[in-house]
Amino acid sequence: MVNLEVKLKDMVLKNPVMTASGTFGFGEEFADFIDLSDLGGIIVKGTTRHHREGNPYPRMAETPSGMLNAVGLQNKGVENFCKDIYPRIKDYQTNVMVNVSGSVIGDYVETAAMINDLDHIPGIELNISCPNVKEGGMAFGTSCASAKEVVRAVRKVYKKHLMVKLSPNVTDIASIAKAVEGQGADSVSLINTLLGMAIDAETRKPLLSTVTGGLSGPAVKPVALRMVWQVAQAVNIPVVGLGGIMNAKDAIEFILAGATAVQIGTANFIDPQVSVKIVEGIKEYMIRHQVSDINDLIGAINLK
Amino acid sequence: MKPKNSNASILYPSKSMKKLIQDFELVKYEELNCEHFVLDIKANEPLPEILPGQFVNVRVDNNKSVFLRRPLSIHNVDYERNVIQLFVKRIGEGTKSLGELKIGDNVSVVYPLGNSYSIPKNAKTLLIGGGCGVAPLLYLSKFLHEAGNEVTTILGVRSSYDAVGLKAYEPYGRILVTTEDGSQGEKGYPTQHSVLENESFDYAFTCGPEPMMKAVAAYAESKDVICEVSLENTMACGFGACLCCVTDTKKGNKCVCTEGPVFNVKDLKW
């Protein structure tokens, strides 16, 4: 038997595999394919204070080893989440976290406060890194000052686990991570998507309605791994790694770089069962390497 | 007054109709012409209930440069042999590579996805397909025929070279052709076929290029015919998780993969 249990501060994950916001709906979309209770946690679709229609079609373009998206936080708002969606998903036997986004600090605060009252939601992931909204979003996550400001404000009203999702579209991600740690973040997750773009040479038109969008998939994995490694060395709070994880080997690499847990994102689109396969694959890796506790692998990269 | 069956409506799979991910085996490859081919893929176990208009999302494992699955209409279903038939046009890397699969190769399939065209009873139905948009219409015509409807299918293609696979429709009704060069059937676009002027229909079901579907919608509007279209927006997942394939409807953005692909044109902003 191997121990897969990890802790993000006081939040216990039965295994280090979570699913990334925006790639897993509200979990229900995957219920035909997997048993959600096999996961360490799920992070549901980005939720904002008010209903958002998102960006016009086209919102997606396939790119080499990845994809661009420009969904733009389409969601029905936090009140709808609390009233209609929460009752449907509250009894999942896993950590259900809500990704909270906004365009002004007041919206983040109000949304977080409403979710604080939901007993079965042990934490939120504060999204200060969405590249697909005109106002707010990534803007909060690209300077230490604004990242501090939004985390400080949300920390005042949000009493449970506060994970902050960082943007890779910065010069020094470790300094942003330290800034949010200083304001009481319980963990950081990284990376959100990398700002990218695609053009159809034949029509000379951009492939996304918004021209630019967020790049995800294996194409971003080396960048994500590097950033997880840098951040893990800079902060004392747990780091949750994501960016192009397609299989257990990728997940192990993030853990070795210093991630306490990982999130599976774009891979869910290609194989809706991949998240539970990764749990199994991590177990197999541990047996093969005679590691009895997953915690012994966190940051265990051999630099010698 | 012509008899009007307006009770039928677009069907959504019930909660008990689970989506599946399974490996299928390619058991038959039929080249129709240099652009179109039909794949017969076979499951190892009995197929679930599949509705006309639903689609599969197929992984293209034989081409590493194809990252996402490719959504394809279900052309026909053979429950006795556990075989799904896919009608494919070589358009990009994904469909080209699917055409290079060998008999016996496995393909990973997520299915059945999306909703279904309405199945009225004892109505006069008109099916209009353009190019590879004809794909879901064969299976639809089978359902419509079995429900006692009169089925007229018009296939619109560039020339007789592309007028392929017509025989399959014959058991279920009348099949008509329009060609842009006049080499077969009537010359012109499918919406210019004389049957649209000379006869009346209760329902028009269409799939194909958007300009053609918009022309069908305009015809349906002018003749007070119920019109349902199948959209082909690009998508990543196919089951409502990525929110990439939305179409702008009168009730906001809707996912083509779960709230479509079939829409009543009255719900769209066309």
What can you see in these coordinates?
With 304 residues, chain A is an alpha/beta fold. Chain A is built from eight helices and 16 strands. Chain A has a single domain (6-297), classed as TIM Barrel (Alpha-Beta Barrel). Helices cover 30% and strands 21% of the residues of chain A. An eight-stranded parallel barrel of chain A has the order 3-4-7-8-9-10-15-16, surrounded by six helices. In chain A, strands 5-6-14-11 form a four-stranded antiparallel sheet, with no helix packed on it. In chain A, strands 1-2 form a two-stranded antiparallel ribbon. Chain A is globular, with a radius of gyration of 18 Å. Chain B is mainly beta. Chain B has three domains: 20-113, Beta Barrel (Elongation Factor Tu (Ef-tu), domain 3); 124-227, Rossmann fold (3-Layer(aba) Sandwich); 231-270, Ribbon (Dihydroorotate dehydrogenase B (pyrk subunit), domain 3), CATH 2.10.240. Chain B has helices spanning 93-98, 137-146, 195-198, 210-223, and strands at 20-31, 36-42, 55-58, 70-73, 76-78, 83-89, 106-113, 124-130, 150-157, 174-179, 186-187, 203-207, 226-230, 246-249, 252-255, 262-264. In chain B, the strands form three sheets. Chain B has a seven-stranded antiparallel sheet with strand order 4-3-7-1-2-6-5. In chain B, strands 11-10-9-8-12-13-16 form a seven-stranded mixed sheet, with helices on both faces. In chain B, helix 4 (210-223) links the parallel strand 12 (203-207) and strand 13. The model of chain B has no long low-confidence stretch (mean pLDDT 95). Chain A binds chain B through residues 22-25, 29-30, 32-33, 45, 53-54, 56-67, 69, 71, 74, 217, 266, 268-273, and chain B through 18-21, 59, 65-69, 108, 110, 233-237, 239-248, 252-253.
